[in-house]
Amino acid sequence: MCHAWYRAVTRRIRWALPLIAATVLGGTIALHGAYHAPWLLSLYLVISIMSTVSDSRIHPVSPTQIIVTGILIIVGTGLWIFVLSLFVSYILEADLDSFKERRTIMEIRRWKNHFVVVGAGRVGESIARELSEMGETVVIVDKDPDRVARVREAGFTTFLLHGFSADAFRPANFPSAKGLALALPDDAENLYAYLTANALNEHLQVVARAQTAEAAQYLHDLGIERVILPDIVGGRRLARMLVKPVAHDLLMALLNEEGVQITEIAVDDHSPIAHQPVQRVRDIFGADVTLIGYWRNQQLHMAPRATDVLLPNDTIILVQSTETAT
Predict the structure, then answer these.
(1) What is the domain class of 2-106 according to CATH?
(2) 54/76 Cα distance (integer angstroms)
């Protein structure tokens, strides 16, 4: 907050100082010519006129002196009003921003099963947009006020993060959250954010971004199962687009759910598919549904055999055409 305040005040000073300097310089030259006063005295008289402090030596007699003095009074008074309005507007904006942030935090406290994205950069914003398009509730947090302001203008719920302590994370309502995406560009900060969030809710689904393989391994060792290295993933995608373009397009269509609907179902003891072979999936969920894989014991089984038996605690992935789904 202090950093944002300093930058806002600095921005307003940059507007005000050149105007004041130009007025003082121009007024000094004008008074020197109109009153034939020494330069230093002319400077003092300009400051006196602009600050509305009367001085006995300011006694316009000639038309030139009257015009110059009148213009300085008007311009000087208007300039001070303008400068004052800049600071008053900042105070009002700061109060309004504080009110909006408090209202946002109160709203987040009522949320359940929402997702928290730590990092308001391009990656974090992309994650939040995808989650929002899937109908999920998302809050973005970041310690950079510029990034927070940018995603707020884009329409996302967000607030400024003051460090990585439990108190700083408390407004995100982690105990009621469903998942966490760590999208900060710094691996160490992602680590700190994870440790704090995990202390608040150890049942969070967590995905993380990492810059190096060493950082990814360290995050894995801490318990984060899904860690992405954007540079490596991007390179693999480009290579596959060159060598297997059709297969890549198919995978991207599945990933983006273009023309298909992907459903993820957790199997429990009461599920109709529990203890049933894969070949029974269509009998239970419909003839237009295809099981492309299942997750068991931290391992993904793709293209399972028809005789594979699905067990409680498995998670199955079903694909259905959007045409048949409707």
Answers:
(1) mainly alpha
(2) 13
